[in-house]
Design brief:
Length: 151
């Protein structure tokens, strides 16, 4: 009986360790547009980077919600949902130079869950000098969140 209870507890704990999720919501509480790509994998328990989304632009004070990955574009499949575990935040549009990138995501996959960064506008002028992004993980069937705020 003890072995059965121990096995059950270990199975439950093994699921608690995985924080990749099936959707993503990006909440931008800053006055700058945010340029971001989402990374993910075929299975929930994987930290492999098998997919990367198209560039997503979240407008100032805007929110982008993707309940599942089929609408992310890029290399994410459109027929079958995948899982997200991290993101790349860009300092501005890809034509702006120098362009910086920051990674954020699930700690389980060795990504920092919180970063500080800056952002440029469409004219490549540095507009927001200090922004903070926080990754809030979710279970496999849930929606992870990235919250972006001024420092």
């Amino acid at each position: 009986m003890k072995n059965l209870l121990l096995s059950f507890a270990l199975v439950l704990l093994s699921f608690a360790g995985y924080a990749t999720s099936s959707g993503i919501e990006i909440i931008n509480q800053s006055e700058c547009d945010i340029y971001i790509q989402i990374k993910g994998s075929k299975t929930c328990q994987s930290c492999d980077v098998e997919y990367i989304s198209n560039m997503i632009v979240v407008p100032a004070s805007g929110t982008a919600l993707f309940p599942n990955t089929t609408m992310l574009g890029g290399s994410f499949p459109v027929a079958m949902p995948a899982f997200v575990h991290s993101a790349i935040i860009y300092s501005g549009p890809t034509y702006c130079q120098p362009l910086e990138r920051w990674r954020i995501g699930d700690q389980i996959c060795n990504y920092p869950p919180e970063i500080v960064f800056w952002s440029m506008n469409q004219n490549c002028d540095r507009k927001c000098d200090c922004l903070r992004a926080r990754w809030l993980p979710a279970p496999c069937t849930g929606i992870a969140r990235i919250i972006i705020q001024p420092c």
